[in-house]
Protein 1
Amino acid sequence: MVPRRTLQIDLAPRELPFWLLATGGAVLGAQAGVAHVFTLPMLFLVTVRVRFRLI
């Protein structure tokens, strides 16, 4: 058999407190008038480190 490459996704919290980053992002989104539908995915990417690796 031929070995196949697979994708590994690692999620790790950032070093700063989660509540501090989430609150700051929510306040900035509210001040800018951005809908929560767009703010929440961006807050996730800011508060969690996402790494993609091919194994």
Note: The helical segments are 18-32, 36-47.
Protein 2
Amino acid sequence: MLEPPPTGKLWGLPTIAAALGVSVATARRWARKPGVPIYQPDGAGAHFAFLSELRAWLRGRRAGQ
């Protein structure tokens, strides 16, 4: 059975990577870059992102190519 597409707040790099269609290593590398809407609160081990922000960032990234 297929899983529904993620919505809202995404927790963890594997989930974020799957939503972006990239590897976890790529999501981790992007998370270190300024301006990429992947967050890691101080002292927290987990990353999170908002799907709407990721989609907007990807649209802007593709438009700039």
Note: The radius of gyration is 12 Å.
